[in-house]
Amino acid sequence: MIVPDATRKAHLSKVLPVIVERLRRAGIEGTSITVLVANGTHPEVGEERVRLLLGAVPDGVRVLEHDSRAVDNLVGVGELRQGIPLRLHRAAVEAELLVTVGSVRHHYFAGFGGGPKMVFPGAGGYEEIQANHARVLRRCGGGFERHPGCEPGALEGNPVAEEIMRVADLRPPDCAICMVEGREGGVAWAGAGPWRVVFSAAVERVRQWFEATAPPFDLMVASGGGAPSDTTLIQGHKGLDAACRFLAPGGEILYIAALDGGLGSEEMRVFVDDPRPETILERLSGGWIQYGHTTLRLVEKTSGHRVRLFSHLDPSLAQRLGFEPVADPDAVVDGWRNEHPGARVGVMPGAAVYPASPEAVSS
Q1: Which of 83, 213, 224, 361 would bridge with 236, disulfide CB 3.0–4.6 Å?
Q2: Model confidence over 91-109: pLDDT tens digits?
């Protein structure tokens, strides 16, 4: 069984016992069940934090954390694309019955999270994951630019998403469980079955609940969505990305997020020293670094909008990335009342909502 790591909300402490009990009723004992935590390229967190993630694991169930760099645990299953071998975790490849569990939500460059992403990149090899994620950039003249198809809500014409789905078909789950959170939290929808069928149904539900059509706002107040969505800047920038899509050019946003986990990866550190978009693209053109792209997406927002940030992030780091740290969000709002009378104001208080994507409009 493949489950998401702690950077994703999946309510595993409630969900896993139900699944295990259903497997037992089908004659599969706990000692035959392995839970593989799909870390992708995220670091292993250790037994104690995994226990917090999973809750009370039923007796006999084995728990593994996926390490994308542990080559002894990886098995070849074909090619990512011509000339690039593809490896997945041995436990996933060799399972007689593979069940994936995950929440489906917008992803800032892979279209949607959950579904096929549980297989890959969740259980993939490090080099293959980097090769897939690097498709978020494409050559333009003598340099690189962000691929216009790699956007939240986009699956068709998105080279990252299309490749992820092709990989999932190389080792398709025997049963995929896809869940969708409600706007107030908790699992509000779930389905199980062949991964393409269930994932498609979950995507449509996410579109219905978390995509909206609205005129551009002059001002916005937005939340990072709470833990784990706003624990680090890598995760927390996704809520900012969503909110800024509703802002008019040059608009202003008050963004409230914990960010008490700092950057989230030391791979971002090299880009923080000179976080101008053009400098980041130039550096990435010399070699792909995953969280360089994340930094690029972030500073595109802070260079295009005035972003007031209320968080635990180090103020000097926040300023370097283009934020304006604030100590009193109420004072910001009070200032708006005086400085921007009649402005159109948007509020995104919880889970990220996105503008309706072309795929949703055409379907």
Answers
A1: 224
A2: 999 999 999 999 999 999 9
pTM, two decimal places:
0.92
Contact 110, 150 (CB under 8 A): yes
262: left (phi over 0), alpha (psi -120 to 50) or beta: left
Two tokens, residue 251: 């608009």
| C-alpha span between 18 and 12 (Å, rounded) | 10
Q: Which of 172, 21, 40, 164 is nearest to 97 (CA)?
A: 172
Distance (Å, whole) CA 74 – CA 124: 8
How far is 298 from 277, CA to CA, in rounded Å?
9
Is residue 162 exposed (0-12), middle (13-18) or buried (19+ Cβ within 10 Å)? middle
CA gap 53, 190 in Å, rounded: 20
Give me the phi and psi of 122, to 5 degrees please: -50, -45
Domain 213-362 in this protein, CATH class: alpha beta
Q: Are 241 and 233 in contact (CB under 8 A)?
A: no
Structure tokens at 151: 């956007």
How is residue 286 annotated by DSSP?
A: T
- What is the pLDDT averaged over residues 244-268? 94
Query: What DSSP assignment string belongs to 305-361?
Result: SEEEEESSS-HHHHHHTT-EE-S-HHHHHHHHHHHSTT--EEEE-SS--EEPPHHHH
E strand map for 141-186: 143-146, 175-181
For the chain, domain boundaries: 2-210, 213-362
For residues 13 and 55, the answer to whether their CB atoms sit within 8 Å is: yes
CATH superfamily assigned to domain 2-210: LarA, N-terminal domain (3.40.50.11440)
Q: CA 269 to CA 313: how far, in whole Å? A: 14
CA pair distance 176, 203, nearest whole angstrom: 14
Measured distance between the N- and C-terminal CA atoms of the chain, rounded to whole angstroms: 33
**Nearest CA to 239 among 254, 255, 227?**
255
Residue type, 266: E
Q: CA nearest 187: which of 259, 105, 244?
A: 105
Longest dimension (CA), the chain: 68
Report the candidate in 320, 328, 305, 317 with the shortest Cα–Cα distance to residue 256. Answer: 328
